Amino acid sequence: MGENKQRMLAGEWYLPDDDELLADTERRAALCAAYNAAETAPGDERRKILEQLIGELGEDVRIRPPFRCDYGSYITIGAGTFINFGAVFLDAAPITIGRYAQIGPNVQLLTPAHELDAERRRAGWEKG
Q: How sure is the predictor about 1, in pLDDT bands with cuts at 50, 70 and 90?
């Protein structure tokens, strides 16, 4: 695991344009695109995609497309949870949703913080 990913997971300042982190987001982008394109596919097909995308996924979780996230692997969703369409989860830090949660349309759960110092912000620093 590279330095920027370690820093991100530790909640420290990191550079998100690191090659390893970019590869992780490209993998996630492909899975999100596949999930969003499978809106009318049978539930078991959509579930298989979510199992590859979401770090921990409880039983009977329903997410209405479109759905977007940064990494996916830092998201935990408990059993019986419903997430309506348009959800955006930026998971540079862990996002944990308990069991039987009901999340409305267009909800955004955003964990990254951007640097307040102008020079460091221009350089791309974030905090997870």
A: confident
Give the domain CATH number at 9.
2.160.10.10
What are the residue numbers of the active site? 114
pTM of the model: 0.92
Number of domains in the chain: 1
d(Cα 19, Cα 87) in Å, to the nearest integer? 26
CA distances from 90 to 58, 59, 118, 119 (A): 19, 22, 22, 23
Range of the domain at 29: 3-127
